[in-house]
Amino acid sequence: MDLSPTYLDPKNLSDLKDLRLRTNQIVDGLVNGMHRSPFQGHSVEFAQHREYVAGDDTRYVDWKVFARTDKLHLKQFENETNFCCWLLIDQSESMSYRGPQEPLSKFEFASCFAVTMAWLVLNQRDAIAMATFAESVASLIRPSDQKANLFQIVEQLSRTELIGKTSLSSSLQEVAVEAQHRGIVLVLTDCFDDFESIAGGIETLKKRGHQVKLLQVLDRSELQFDFSMPLKMRGLESGAEFSVDPVMLRKAYLDVVKKSRDQLVHYCQSHDVDFFQFRSDMNIATAIRWVIRGRLATERQYELG
Amino acid sequence: MMFPLPRLFSALQLLQPWMLIFGLGVLIPILIHVWNWNRQGVIRWAATGYLELAMQRLSRRMTLQQWVLLLIRMLIVSVLAISLAAPIWELSSGVLRSQRSKSVLHVVLLDASYSMQTQVNEVSNFEMAKGLATRLVDDFPSDDAVVVFMMHEKLTEVLPQPTADRSVILNEVELLFPSNRPSRPRSCLVELSNHPLVRSEAMFDQTDIHVIGDFMGDGWTVGAQMSDALMAIEEKSQLQFHSVVDSSCSNHFVKNIRSDSPRWIVNTPQKIDVEVQQIGGLDPQRTLVEILSDQKVIGSRSVLLEPNSSETVSFSIEFSQPGQKKLTVRLADDQLLIDNRRYFLCHVVEKYNVLFVEDRYQSSRFLQLALAPEPLKSSFNIRRTDSKDFFQQQPDDFDVIFLDNVRELTDGDVTRLRRFASQGNTVVIFLGDLIDRDRFQNSWSQPAGNLPGLPIDLVGIQSPDQIKIDPLDYLSPILSEFRGNPSSGLTELPIWSYHKVNFDTEDDRFRVDMALANRDPLLVTCRMGKGLCILMTTASSSIAKDRDDPLVSWNAIETSPVYPPLIQELIKVAIDVSPALKFLVAEKLGGSFEDFIELQQGVIRSERGVEQNLVWRQKNGIVDWSADALSSPGFYKLEFSSINAQHAVDLAINIRNTDGDLRITNPEKWQSPVDATAEVSRETEIRFQVYQFFLLGVGVLLLLEGCLAQWFGRGR
C-alpha cells in the first residue's frame, strides 16, 4: 500500500494536528465520542484527560488539575458518542482537468483533501466513510473509526478511474441510502451539473439529517480564463469542440462563472449548507482549516481572487 | 456637383506602381488570422457548461468584431502600399475638366514633315508618333470627341468631323504616312487656330490640341512670330506637346566658329576653327564637317566625336576676290537640322583701309611709317586728312581711324566717329599738346542717344622728371608679343609728357594695356558698342611739343626700335573687330548707318525671299533702324531703298551656341506662352497632397484599430 505524501503531506498534518472536526448538530454514533449524542443515560465514567483546545466545552475542564499544573485539561467521559464523516468525491471526467502549470488536477486536490480530512477525523476517533461518484456511486468505503480505513481510502482513490458525467442528484441519493446515521457529509465536486440536480442531491442528504458541506473545486484557469491566444476547446465530458477567442470571451465567461457561483451560494445559505469554493492550487491545510472553522465562501471570496 | 467615381479613380495615378507589391501585405493579417485559428492547440476543457453559456451570449458579436478588425488591418496595409506608390491625382488637367460634364474636343495634330522619317532602331519617328497618338486616343474619356490633322508645309485634315468612335479614329491614324515636305509649324498652328472647330466656342466647351512630332527643323525655333502663333492658339484651347524624339539618340552641333580676323586680305590664307560637339549617345560617332562659301563646298573634314565632348576642326581658307563672303559650316548625318549649321560673314579686302586724321601736317607720318614701311607691299591702304576735312570722308570706307593729336573736331564729327566705333570698328586716339581738355570731354564723354560715350576725364598734362613704363605683365593682347623679351625696349620708351586720365576702374569696358610706373595709364582700351576705342595718353611722336621756351617734345618714342612692332600689334587688335552685323535668333535687331538721301523703304529679306519690314528713323543723315527678332538662322539682307539709290547690308543670324542641342526643341522648355513649368509644379503640389492624405488615412486607421481592439478585448 502506498501511503504517498501526495495525499498526506507531513507539513499539512503538522499544521492541522490541533484541529478537530466538530459537528454543530446532534449526530448518531455507535460509540461514545466527543459529540453530543441523542442517546441519554450512558456511562459517565471518567476515561482520560486531554489538553484543552479552543472550542472545547468549559464544563469539562478539570479545575483541580488546572490548579495544580496551571494548565487546562479536559476530563473525558466514556458516554460521548462519535460521528461519521462522509467524504463524497466526484470522479467524473471533468475532475481530471488540470490547467497549464498547475500542480494538481481537481481530483488530485480533492483526493489530498479527503485523505487529510480522513486522517484528521480518524485521529479524533470519529468514523470516516468515503464514496466516489460520477453518474452514480462508483465506490464506497463504509464508516469505520479504524486507521485501516485511511489506507483503504488512499488505495481506493489511487486506483480511481475518472470517467462519466457528474450527476449529483442520483449519486447523493444512493449515498443517502447508505448513510443512515446522521453525520457530516463533505461533497467534493466541481459542480459541473445542473443546478437542479445539485440542489436535489443536497436536499436528499439534508432530509436524512446530515450536516452537508459543499466543496466546489475548480482549476485556476477555470476561474480566471486567462488564455491569450485563440483556442480550440474540447469538452472532457461532452466531447464537444469550441473555437474560442479567450480575449474576447473572457468577460462573458467570468460573468457566467460568477452567476453560477452566486446561485450556489444563495441556495446553500438558504438551506443551511456550508459552501466552499477551492482552487486546485490551494494549500490543503488552509482549505481544511477553512472547512473546519466553517468560514463560508462568501466571507473569503476575495482570497480566491 | 458629384464627380463620377470611376472618373476619379481613373485620375489616380501612381508614380511608383511597383511599390504596390507591398499591397501583398494584406495577406499578412489574413494569414495571421488563419494561422491563429489553425495553430491553436486543442485543449481538453472541463467547464464546457460555462463556456457554452458565455459563447451563446457572445458568439455573433465576437465574429463580427473579428471580421471588422481583420478588415481594418487589411485596409491599413493597402492604404500604406498605395501611399508608398506615390499616388498623384491628376485633377489639374484632363480629369478636372472632364468632371465638369463639358463637351471636350481633342485635336490630334501629327507632324508629317520629312524629318519624321528619321529612323531610330528601324522605327521612324512618324511610326512612333502614330503609336503615341493611338495611346492618347485610348486614354481620352470615351465620350470626348476627337479630330485628327496632319501638318507639314500646310495643315491637312485627316479626320475633320468630330467623332467619339475610337475604331474609326484608330483606323484613320493607322493609314497615315509622312510627307516629303518640310515643316512649317507656325503657319500650320495659325491655320489650326483659325479652323472653325477650334475657333468656334459654341460647338465645344473645351478644345485640347495635342501636337505630336519631333520638333526638329528651323520652323520650330522660338521667335516672335512663333510666340504670337502659340499665344493665339492658347487663347482658344489647351495646347499640349508630345515629342517622339528618343532622348538617347545623339546629336551633333556646331558650337562655335572662329576666325583669326573678320577682315580678310585677298590671297592670304586665313584660319577658321570650327568647334563641334556631340550631345547624347553612348558611342563615339564620326561626322563630316563641311564649310561652304556661297553654297559651294570649299572644305570638309571628318571628325570623330566622343559622347558629350567637343572637337575643334581647323580650315585654312583664302579668297582671291575681295567682297563680302558668306561662309556656312554644316554637319552631315545629324538628326536635327536646326543646330548643325553656322553662318559666318567675312569681309575680304585687298588692303585694310586706315584713315589718319591730324591737325598738324605730317604729324602722323611716323605712325604711317610704322604701319606701312613699304606702302606698295603693305596690306594697308593709308589715307590722311586734316581734321577740318574729316566731314568729307565716309568713315564706313575705313577699317580703322587714327586721331593724332586732333584739336578741332566738330560734335558731328565726333558723333560719326562714335557711331563708326559702336558698329564694330576701332578708333585710335593719340593725345598731345593740341588737345583741349574741355572740348575733348564735352565731345566724347557723354553718351548721345544710342551712341556710347568715352567716359574718360583728362586731369592735366604731367611731365615728371623720370618716367618708366609698366607693361602690366604683358596681359594686354597688344603687348602679348613682347612677353619674354625684356630687352625689347618697351619699358624704356622715351616719354616725358602725357595726359593724366581718370576713369572708373570698376567699369569693365576699360582695360589698361600699359601704364607708367606711377600707375598712370599710358595705353587704354575701351569698348564702344561693338567696336573699340584705343587711347594713348601721350603723343604719337616727338612732333608734339610744348610751346614753352625752349620747345620740349612730349616724347621720342619713334626713335625706339619697339615703336613699329608696337604700332603693328595695336593695328592688329584694332582690325580684329568684326564690322559685320551679327545677331542671334530671337534677338531684337537694330543698328544705324549714315545716309543723307531720304529713304523710302526698308526690309530685311531672307535667302528664301521672306521679307519683314523695318522700322527706321532718319535724322541729320543718320538712319536708326530696328526690326522684330528673327525666328530662323541663316543669311539675311538688310535693304534700304531711296529714289535713286539702294543700301544693302548682309546679316548672319545664328542660334546661340549654347542652344544647339535637342533640348532647345523641347517645347516644355520654350520661353513662350506654353508654360509647361507651371503645370508641372501644380501637379507636384497635388501629388504631395494626395500622398499626405493616404498617410493620414493610415494614421486614422491605426488609431481606429487600436481603439476597437481595446474595446473588443476589454482590458487586453
What are the defining features of this structure?
heterodimer; A: about 300 residues; alpha/beta; Rossmann fold; 6-stranded mixed beta sheet; two-stranded antiparallel ribbon; 10 helices; about 35% helix; elongated; disordered N terminus; B: about 725 residues; Immunoglobulin-like; 8-stranded mixed beta sheet; 5-stranded mixed beta sheet; 14 helices; 38 strands
Summarize the model shown.
Chain A is α/β, with parallel strands linked by helices and 305 residues long. Helices cover 36% and strands 20% of the residues of chain A. Chain A contains 10 helices and 10 strands.
Describe the structure.
The complex is a heterodimer of chains A (305) and B (716). With 305 residues, chain A is of the alpha/beta class. Chain A has 2 domains: 10-16 and 82-304, Rossmann fold (3-Layer(aba) Sandwich); 46-77, no CATH class. Helices cover 36% and strands 20% of the residues of chain A. Chain A is built from 10 helices and 10 strands. Chain A has helices at 10-16, 63-69, 106-123, 148-158, 168-178, 195-207, 220-224, 246-270, 284-293, 301-304; strands at residues 46-51, 73-77, 84-90, 127-133, 137-144, 184-189, 211-218, 231-235, 241-244, 274-279. Chain A has a 6-stranded mixed β-sheet, sandwiched between helices. A two-stranded antiparallel sheet of chain A has the order 1-2. Chain A has a two-stranded antiparallel ribbon with strand order 8-9. In chain A, a hairpin with a 5-residue loop joins strand 8 (231-235) and strand 9 (241-244). In chain A, helix 1 runs parallel beside helix 9. Chain A is elongated and about 70 Å long. Chain A starts with 9 loop residues before the first helix and ends with a helix. With 716 residues, chain B is an alpha/beta fold. Chain B folds into 5 domains: 13-90 and 686-713, no CATH class; 102-246, von Willebrand factor, type A domain (Rossmann fold, 3-Layer(aba) Sandwich), CATH 3.40.50; 270-336 and 343-348, Immunoglobulins (Immunoglobulin-like), CATH 2.60.40; 351-561, Class I glutamine amidotransferase (GATase) domain (Rossmann fold); 586-654, Immunoglobulin-like (Sandwich). Helices cover 27% and strands 32% of the residues of chain B. In chain B, the strands form 10 sheets. Chain B has an 8-stranded mixed β-sheet with strand order 20-19-21-22-28-27-26-24, sandwiched between helices. In chain B, a hairpin with a 3-residue loop joins strand 37 and strand 38. In chain B, helix 10 packs across helix 13 (563-575). The radius of gyration of chain B is 38 Å and the shape is elongated. Chain B starts with a helix and ends with a helix. Mean pLDDT of chain B is 78; it is low at 1-5, 92-100 and 658-688. The chains are: A alpha/beta (305), B alpha/beta (716). The A-B interface holds A 93-97, 106, 190, 192, 218-219, 222, 229-238, 240-245, 247-253, 255-257, 260 and B 36-37, 40-55, 57-58, 62, 65-66, 712-714, 716. Strand 8 of chain A pairs parallel with strand 2 (42-45) of chain B, so a sheet runs across the interface.
